[in-house]
Amino acid sequence: MYRDLKPENLMLDIKGYVKLVDFGFSKELVRGEKTYSFVGTPEYMAPEIIKNQGHDFAVDFWSLGVLIYELLVGSPPFSSSEPQKIYAKILDGVLKYPPYMSEAAKSIISKMCRPRPGQRLGNTKNGIKDVRHHRWFGSMNWHKLRVGQLDAPTGPCYINFDRFPLDQTKAEEEFSGWDRDF
């Protein structure tokens, strides 16, 4: 379970593929097990974390719904400068969609951001298959994505990047002694 899905934890590799970083809140769980840690970034926390109920993998599907919303709109659906107000908005569960958002996008977001974990898209009987087959993804070729054969729509942009030969010199041993009495 990842528990901190947000734009700041997504990076693009050299081919333009998204990679997750910062696994500080991740936790291994066996199916059926729950954890009670209060962790995550307020705007992306699932209701069960806020209520301090046991939570599992379903929190990542909630966060994915919030992330999709933010990538399409430019801001998360639940936001405030005060965490307590963010939590209240999440618990209210009211999602407001801009008029330009497609019905398919509204559908996947609303199905992932259901208050009850057992009803969330991705956390039902068919698991991740339901997410992959949702109409918002259209004709996505998941196999080609997995094996790196899709052309990414964008890639890292290098501006004012000076190319230097690869530096293969060994670093000198560090003798500052900062850890002598550690």
UniProtKB/TrEMBL annotation:
Gene3D superfamilies: Transferase(Phosphotransferase) domain 1. Keywords: ATP-binding, Kinase, Nucleotide-binding, Serine/threonine-protein kinase, Transferase. GO terms for molecular function: ATP binding; protein serine/threonine kinase activity. Residues 1-137 form the Protein kinase domain. PANTHER family: CYCLIC NUCLEOTIDE-DEPENDENT PROTEIN KINASE, PROTEIN KINASE CGMP-DEPENDENT 3. This is cGMP-dependent protein kinase 1. The gene is PRKG1_3.
